[in-house]
């Protein structure tokens, strides 16, 4: 196999797990395209020569892929190198093009609210919509279809990269197998939307979406344990830039893991002491309402200790040093994080394991919307 045909074998940020098979020339080209795009995403700038040096691909191979991506609207030429090592002309810099292609992103993870946006390739909303639902109203597939239809009404269909949906629950290749929040079981939302609109659709768990935003637009690196704490508790794990989804696509569904099975509160799932009943934001607020103000910080500190105890095992098993917690500021605050850090240090300190740090996620309210857009881009680059 020539250098032009070789696919880079190192890890790269937009890699997703899949089956391993013998690579065809189109597979190799797609792999090379994914690699080059990943070196630029989200805010990188490289010349063609630098891309060649960093990937090991020949100048011809780089030029072929770059020219296709320029024509497609994925990247753009963005000025010139400021310094050169030789006497030749300065190289033209390439970066992600945020002006041409668009993504339709919809967030189904919030209580009584559906949010949607038309975003650029970096997930930044260019147009917004939302639907407020009554307390006893659950969204249906027909409503989502209408929502997408309105968001795409003013767009050139040839400029739409895909539709991204972030949803709570267990999601298996576009099928929402189980979502308590939505009241859905075995709903093939991906197939429904693709039949209706003829546009690629990516359905992703909401916590995974939030983790992707933290990875590319926050402070995270390629290895991350991400926890989302709101009305429920979920987690997502990134190892060498690959999201860990699990054998049955339920990786990260930690809300009903019991951390106090003997004395904890009863849970609708039938166990006692589940994480959602003990330390979710909803549960903690309810407990704090029932005690004097002087006792509330003690409840928050205990929640931090419970959280660290639950995370100590995966931290030690996977050797992850970055733990990011996303949630409301009245719950995920310094009191909780300090207590969690002290407990985690006690449980995981060793001579061969680097110290794991628990920190608060700094990404804003669009964290899931942006992450669903990243998921669309990832699948588009690798599969289309």
TrEMBL record:
It comes from the Bacteria. Residues 1-27 are annotated as: Disordered. This is ROK family protein. Pfam families: ROK. Belongs to the ROK (NagC/XylR) family. InterPro entries: ATPase_NBD (IPR043129), ROK (IPR000600), WH-like_DNA-bd_sf (IPR036388), WH_DNA-bd_sf (IPR036390).
